[in-house]
Specification:
Structural class: alpha+beta
Largest sheet: 4 strands, antiparallel
GO biological process, one term: regulation of DNA-templated transcription
Order of helices and strands: EEEEHHHHHHHHHHH
Radius of gyration: 23 Å
Helix content: 55-70%
Protein name: PRD domain-containing protein
Number of strands: 4
Keywords: Repeat
Number of helices: 11
Pfam families: CAT_RBD (PF03123), PRD (PF00874)
Shape: elongated
CATH topology of the largest domain: PTS-regulatory domain, PRD
Number of domains: 3
Strand order of the largest sheet: 1-2-3-4
GO molecular function: RNA binding
Mean pLDDT: 85
Oligomer: single chain
Length: 279
């Protein structure tokens, strides 16, 4: 692979063996290098192939016009995320996080506070991503000498969830709002409050997957009314949980114009029955 352009000491533009334009990042990969030099493969940490022209230009523009420190910080954050989450994340998070952190640090020095109105919900419903956000703050403090505050961890978590889903962050916020609304339904109807129990986490995970299936139109063919008999038994034996599930069903219908069937209602009832037994 040959270097085409030095973006900065830690990012270069190059051509791979298929003559495709790529961006390569790695600590010191561009230091004292010149165009046409061969790429030092031992320094490669991440490569971006030009498979989406718009996204590629956006990433290239960000790496060309930003302090190298931001690239180092974001690479550290993403390395932690990949290890912790053990799932692929969209490459756009590199440019998005660089932009966000630059803005957050500018706000810090201008003493402009920005509050995340979904801080509590993000911390509760995306605990792994939030934990990575907290660790990210430590990296930022170490590299830039600034303490952005715990609220910033929730913003970083949103970018991580967004990158996992490969969709825009507005849908992450929508997902969070809906999960929170459903949590309030079970709180007011069954007096089940958010806690750190395994059963509550399983319920939230199930709701999250259900809503994601609806938002992104995934796996709708999985619900085929196979548990009608179980549904009818539970409906009679656990009327409070059944009524709560019907409220959730109606909320989803109103929100998305999608009616979840009795199989899904059965799964929700089972979760709520287990949760109710703990109270």
């Amino acid at each position: 692979m040959k270097i085409q352009k030095i973006l900065n000491n830690n990012a270069i533009l190059a051509l791979n063996d298929n003559s495709e334009e790529i961006i390569i990042i790695g600590k010191g990969i561009g230091f004292q290098q010149n165009p046409t030099n061969l790429v030092n493969k031992n320094l490669i940490e991440k490569m971006f192939v030009n498979t989406n022209t718009k996204n590629f230009k956006y990433i290239k523009s960000n790496f060309s016009n930003i302090s190298e420190k931001y690239i180092i910080v974001v690479q550290k954050i993403i390395n932690i995320a990949l290890q912790k989450l053990n799932k692929p994340i969209n490459d756009m998070i590199y440019a998005n996080l660089i932009n966000h952190l630059q803005f957050a640090i500018e706000r810090y020095f201008k003493k402009i506070p920005i509050l995340n109105t979904f801080f509590r919900e993000i911390k509760m419903y995306y605990p792994e991503e939030f934990e990575i956000g907290v660790k990210s703050l430590e990296i930022v403090k170490e590299e830039f000498g600034v303490d952005l505050g715990i609220e910033e961890a929730s913003f970083i978590a949103v970018y991580l969830v967004d990158a996992e889903l490969e969709h825009d962050s507005s849908k992450v916020i929508m997902l969070t709002e809906i999960i929170d609304a459903i949590s309030k339904v079970i709180y007011y109807d069954l007096e089940i409050s958010a806690d750190n129990s395994e059963d509550y986490d399983k319920f939230i995970l199930h709701v999250k997957q259900l809503i994601m299936n609806i938002i992104y139109e995934m796996n709708q063919d999985l619900f085929n009314n196979n548990f009608q008999e179980i549904y009818e038994v539970l409906m009679k034996q656990y009327p409070k949980e059944y009524e709560c599930v019907i409220k959730i069903k109606n909320y989803i219908l109103k929100k998305f114009k999608v009616e979840i069937n009795n199989d899904e209602c059965t799964y929700l009832m089972i979760h709520l029955i287990k949760l109710s037994s703990n109270y």
